[in-house]
Amino acid sequence: MEQVTLLVQQLLKMFVYMCVGFLLVRGGVLKKGESRVPAQMLLYVFLPCTIVNSFYTGDRSRGAGPLMTSILLGAAALIVAMAISALLFRKRPIDNFSGAFSNAGFMGIPLIGMILGAPYVIYIAGMVAMLNALQWTYGQMILSGEKRVSTRALLTNPMIVAFALGLIVFFLPVRLPDIAETCLGGMAACNTPLAMIVLGLYLGESDLRRVFSDQRVYLTCAVRLLLVPIVTVLVLKLIPAEYELRTAIILAACAPVGSNVAIYAQKLKLDHAYAVGLVCASTVLSIVTIPAVIYVAGLIG
Q1: pLDDT at 257
Q2: Distance in angstroms (rounded) separating the CA atoms of residues 78 and 139
Q3: How far are the Cα atoms of 31, 59, 132, 236, 290 from residue 41, in angstroms, in the given order?
Q4: How many CB atoms lie within 10 A of CB 234?
Q5: If pLDDT is split at 50, 70 and 90, which confidence band does 218 have?
Q6: What separation in angstroms does the CA of 263 have from each of 39, 62, 176, 252?
Q7: 281: buried, middle or exposed (CB in 10 Å: 19+, 13-18, 0-12)?
Q8: How far, CA to CA in Å, does 18 sit from each of 26, 196, 212, 269?
């Protein structure tokens, strides 16, 4: 129960950051569409720095065992999500993508850093890399109906590059110069506020009346925020792992709809407004559902 209380407190802090982004748009400081710049900064700078920093500050004395286990658990969580979403939303591409892929980067990483501590972000680094690779391949296939994958786009994905750099830092006795270490840590520290402000910008750009009056939104959110995480908890219960590792994966699985669905929907000329609505509605609702799932996970053991 103490962890749930702490989680609620941290989510409320994150909600305040979201409100800042929301007010920047609704107050006219930023215009609609200008969220793209901070979102790109987050994707190409701050999130990658957070992942690399988690490897750099992680506990290397325990070897590769916990890291490999975290990759296994992350893969299991992604398989669960994709299977459930494909089963329920096979004929609804945007909902299929939304149910399968959480916002583990924007929201999962900040939560894990705040609840468990920055060194434990390493436990979902592999999951975030796999999630991004799958979004850029399987996810775009879902939305476009095409079967071709751009290898170049996959290899230049910033999350995959960051994961590869992180592995190098983790396995080699690398010691960065003090100035580089300070800059890396400073960039990583910016991740949580900026990620939530960006989500607030998305919320501010949305038609809230349309978002929260569409019944399809609530069904997809229920799958993403409740069904997928609870099934993930049950599956992870079968795999032996330490408490922090299991909690990190569950928090990532609890995260709302991944914001890339809106980017891809716009790129492929699908219902961009509906995709943005799913991201925003699930983000707001997750403030309630994440503590609820963590509480249930604690009961299950």
Answers
A1: 93
A2: 12
A3: 17, 28, 16, 33, 26
A4: 12
A5: very high
A6: 11, 39, 35, 20
A7: buried
A8: 12, 5, 17, 27
